[in-house]
Amino acid sequence: MSTRRAADRNPRAAAPARPGVATIAQASAKQNSDTYVHTLFGARLGQWSTDPQAPPAIVMPGREVTFSELRGSVENCAAWLVREGCRPSQVVGITIAEELTNLVVSLALLHLGVPQVCLPTYDPPAMRLRLARRLAVARIVVTDQRHALPGRDASLLTPETLARANDLQCAAVAADPDATAMYFTSSGTTGEAKVIALSQRMVAGRAERRNLTPGERMLMLATVEDYPAQTKRLYCLYRGLTSVLQSGTLSPPLGARELCAHFGVTRLNVNVLQASSLAPDGSAGSRLPAGLKVFVSGSRVPTRLRQAFRTGGGAALFVEYGAREVGGIANTCTVDRDEALETVGTPHPEVELEIVDRGGKALPPGEVGEIRVRSPDMIGGFYQDPVATARYFRDGWFHPGDIGSLTASGSLCIHGRADDMMNLNGIKIFPAEIERVLEEHPAVKAAAAFAVPSAVHGDIPVAAVELHDGTMVGVDELMARAREGLGVRAPRRIVVLEALPRNASGKIVKRDLVGAVVSDR
Amino acid sequence: MENAQLRIAVLEALKAAVPGAVNDQMRDSFLAGGLNIELARLEMDSLARMEFCIAIELSTGVTLVPPQLAELGSTDAIERCIREQLG
User: Fold this and answer.
1) Which terminus in chain B has less CB density within 10 A, N or C?
2) Could you report the per-residue pLDDT of A320-334, keeping only the tens digit for each?
3) Is this structure's pTM higher than 0.80?
4) Chain B closest CA to A367's CA: distance in Å?
């Protein structure tokens, strides 16, 4: 392992023909000028940086960054990365929790056409190393040397590094927009994470097609090291909009409500857990500013949460449905739709969506079947995983593994994951129906239903619940309520846990729950 | 699994299968080991037998099938059968 500190070296000493110019980029541009265009993100950043009407690129407590300043940082960083040895043929890992630095490195790698993958600081080293090996990551950019991994070069980025890179220049870069630019893992809540490779054109296409309007200011509460949070911030910058970051120089840091109010946030992206903690509770102080759109995604959005926003006043709640493999699929404002159905809205215009039976025949509205989708920016398969690719990509469609139905008006209702559907002696049961009933109890904050496999009965439905702080409820009471609401579809066991296990996106990791439910055998 | 735990598991399975069939007096006597409940007395239908088997499987890990219950006939016999399977 070698950790190279760029600030320790004199950048001019190693300079080639033109001092500090990133030669790899020049060479690439010359060789491929007929075929390739300037990197999409680099070109777009350049466009916004010279637009006098452009809003600030980044606002954060104690700091505002213009597109011009951001472009300068990105180009400095790009030049430094080239000097560190980054090449388009090698994958670079990013292990940086600080939002702005992470974004600058990510944009710099996009600028250079160097493929990148986030190896999050919150993952244990063994997990990061496993992914690094899988993708043959040659180099990792870190801001803390402790995040270096054995057997991988590490480039330590410090504030001084970028300051010293001021006298470097990164030439206009040309790279293949269809080459892999970013690797992500699938959410991994239902099994081993699969790897998704996106080209720069796909990322740019998804950014272009997002329903963003000029003047919007977006805040993501999820860490920048998580896929949706990183890409949505990149989309925002690509479209010339302002990204509001939580990190900054203020201590103590501002909470979500203060950030929204202070920075005029118009679009807040959260997961269900975060949305629950921000939901209005009837008091004026609990309301988020009117005009703010709160987008929630990542897992089922319970009826109670939708109702809280609809009746509580202030911000409007939007439910999003998407998949990393295809991008955004649908969204809905909960004010407009039937909450009882927990719909996720009508598919976006560029997305084709069908509900099909086992034979792949499209089903009419009202009938329940497997969802399949395709979009212009979808991937063709998983990285080096032909088995998973054959399972989820069929006949030009992506099958996300969700079961759903369409209403007469074309809204999509998600019934649950096909993998999660339980078959109890022939009775088909979806976790979502159990979770909905349990979450109607005022003490229940969140419920997770899943199957305990049985050789005789197929799947025995069970559930785990997490209660609101300061509340108590007996298991017998919950069982009775479930029996009343679900009959034979009720869970046969319910356990109350202090907290349900969740991944970084706030999704409940059900595979970790089986042991908790049957541990007393 | 201790005898007392097994008795609780069987009692809970009975309650899941035939709600209200086991009163407080029966419960106390059963848990104390002084009551062998004849299943015929509970008039379990096919659904109730299935629920009983599911509850036993969840709490003990032992698989029973509904037809076995008619053969076993009583809670004592069921307990013996489970204990044998648990080894």
Assistant:
1) C
2) 999 999 999 998 887
3) no
4) 28
